[in-house]
Amino acid sequence: MASSLLLVGFIITFPCLVSVSLSETLLLPLTHSLSHAHPQFNSTHHLLRAASARSAARFRLRHRHQRHLPRQASLPLSPGSDYTLSLTLHSQAVSLYMDTGSDLVWVPCSPFTCILCDGKPKPAPVALNSSSSTSDVTCKSSACRAVHSPLSSSSDLCAMARCPLEDIEISDCAAYQCPQFYYAYGDGSLVGRLKKGIVTIPTSSPPLVLRNFTFGCAHTALGEPLGVAGFGRGPLSLPAQLAESSPQLGAQFSYCLVSHSFDADRVRRPSPLILGRYDVTEKSSEGKGGSDFAYTPMLDSPNSPHFYSVGLEGISVGRRFIPAPENLRRIDGRGDGGVVVDSGTTFTMLPSGLFGAVAAEFDRQLGRVNSRRARAVEDNTGLSPCYYVDGAGARVPDVEFRFAGGSGVAMPRGNYFYEFVDVDGGNKGRRVGCLMMMDGGDATEMGGGPGATLGNYQQQGFEVVYDLEGRRVGFARRQCASMWDSLRQG
C-alpha cells in the first residue's frame, strides 16, 4: 500500500544512536490496531476515509458539547489510527486504547451490550460480579465528583444516588454508590459505574500491582466495544493513579509511535510507552550528544482541564512562515483555544483560516511542478489537497510547527505528505500524494473549545514526552522501532 521509500528516507536522513539508563521506569508495548485491522479496511482509500471522517467528527463534537459536557472524552479512532496496551484486571487480561485526550480508565464489564458494534473487535468483557476484591465507589468520594464533573457537589451526587434527605443533611452518604456516569465520544458513548479494584501491569518485571485502583465499569456502550486507558491530566487517569503509589512513575510519561504510513507490515513491532523518568543520551551521526527535546509549556483550560494543551505560534511551509491565529497561541478567559496534543486523533485538525493558508502555500509551492490535482482521490479520502506525483517526482516543501517558547518541530515528509498508489477510478495505478492535515472549521462557528488538535499521524517518529511536574510537552526525533530494542536492552 505505502512506499517503503518514506521509511528508508527517514532512516538515512536522521540516523542516531540512543543509549538509555532505565531508572525507576516502566516500559510497556503499544500495539497498533492496523496490525490486526478488520477486512473492511482493506484499501488505502478506506483507511483514509475512515480516519479523516472520525478525526473531524471527534474534533467537532468536542466543540458542540463544550459548554454542556465539560467532561468530554476523546475517541480512539478506527483501524489505522489507534494504539492499545494490555493490563490485567482481577486476573483477566484486557486490551485498552491508550488515550491522552481522556482521563478515565474504563473496561467493558459482563454482561456487556455494545450497540452498533458490528465489524468491530469483540473482546471478552470483564467479570466482576463474583470478585470480592472489587468495591463500589461512593457518592461522597472525590473520584465520584471527578467522573461526573469538577463542579458537582457532594450533596448533588448524594441526591442522584437516592440518598435520603435526612442522611444528606447530616453528610452521612458514604454507604451510597456513586451514580452512573455518561461519556460521549466522536461516534459512540457509554454508561458506566465507578469501581475500585486491583490492576496489574503484567509486562513489567516484576509485575506492577495497583491496589484500590479506580476504574469505570460499563455494561452498555454505543459504537465502542473496547475500553480506554485514559492518560489525561485528570485525577482518574492512569498516570495520576500510578503517581499515588509510585510517584517516580507518575511524574512523566512518553511514547514513540512507529511510523506506519497505513502499512500493516510497518507496525508489527511495538511502539514503546515509557512511564517515569529515564536518562537518555542522544548521539547523532556527527557524534554530538545531549538532549534534543523541543519543549513547549502546557496551557490550562477550566473547560477542559484534562487536555494537554499547548500554544502554537505558526507553521512554516518551505521558507514561508504562516502565523497562527490568536486562539491557537493561548487559552482565553473563557477557557477556549490552544492546541490539544492527542494520541487518539489521527490527523491534525486546524482552524479554517490557518489550514487554508497552509494548503494554499503548499499548493503554490508543490503545484508549480505537479499541477494536476487528484480531485477524485480528495473526494474518496476526505483529504485535500492531493496531487498526482508520478513522473518527474514531487518537490514537497518542508513543514515545521513552531510552538510557544520558540520550540520548532520539523516534520519528516511522511508525517504530512502521504504517497500511495491510486487503486480506484480511471487513474488506477498512478501515484498520489496528499496533505495529511485537515480543516477543522471556523472557530467562530464551533462554539468554543480547543482551537486545534495535533494528531498521532504527525507524532510518528517522535518521542513525545509529557512532563507532568515540569508542566511541559516535548518532542524529539527517534527511530521508534530501534528505540524499543534499546530500551529493552537497558
Automatic annotation (TrEMBL):
Where is each Peptidase A1 domain found? Answer: 83-476
Entry-linked Gene3D superfamilies = Acid Proteases
Q: Which GO terms describe its molecular function?
A: aspartic-type endopeptidase activity
Q: Does the keyword Protease apply?
A: yes
InterPro entries hit by this protein: Aspartic_peptidase_AS, Pepsin-like_plant, PEPTIDASE_A1, Peptidase_aspartic_dom_sf, Plant_Aspart_Prot_A1, TAXi_C, TAXi_N
Keyword check for Nucleotide-binding: no
Supply the alphabetized keyword list. Answer: Aspartyl protease, Glycoprotein, Hydrolase, Protease, Signal
Instruction: Give an example GO biological process.
Output: proteolysis
Which residue positions does the secretion signal occupy? 1-23
Tell me the Pfam families matching this sequence: TAXi_C, TAXi_N
**PANTHER family assigned to the protein according to its UniProt record, in alphabetical order:** OS07G0603500 PROTEIN-RELATED (PTHR47967), PEPTIDASE A1 DOMAIN-CONTAINING PROTEIN (PTHR47967:SF26)
Family from the record: Belongs to the peptidase A1 family.
- The protein's name: Peptidase A1 domain-containing protein
Tell me what organism the protein belongs to. Answer: Eucalyptus globulus (Tasmanian blue gum)
Show the taxonomic lineage.
Answer: Eukaryota, Viridiplantae, Streptophyta, Embryophyta, Tracheophyta
